[in-house]
UniProtKB/TrEMBL annotation:
InterPro entries: DUF465, DUF465_sf. This is DUF465 domain-containing protein. Residues 19-67 form a coiled coil. It comes from Brevundimonas kwangchunensis. Keywords: Coiled coil. It comes from the Bacteria. Pfam families: DUF465 (PF04325).
Length: 74
């Protein structure tokens, strides 16, 4: 066993997996928004919806990151 790696509980492993999924989905939405913006006539309504979804994902990512890395008072 490698002593350099911290022991993670099943919940922490699940949080890390969920975080990775959300980050990938966030990046995919960013790429979609970028692609829609380069169309000759961009669908502004679709772009706005994707941006709202991206913000929702960002909020969820921040919440999970806060659970993984709690504030440490030094």
């Amino acid at each position: 066993m490698n002593d350099d790696e911290p022991f993670l509980t099943e919940e922490e492993l699940a949080l890390h997996a969920r975080l990775k999924e959300l980050q990938q989905e966030h990046a995919d939405l960013d790429a979609s928004i970028e692609a829609l913006g380069h169309m000759p006539i961009p669908d502004q309504l679709m772009i706005a919806r994707l941006k709202r979804k991206k913000l929702t994902l960002r909020d969820e990512i921040v919440k999970i990151e806060a659970r993984i890395l709690p504030d440490i008072i030094a």
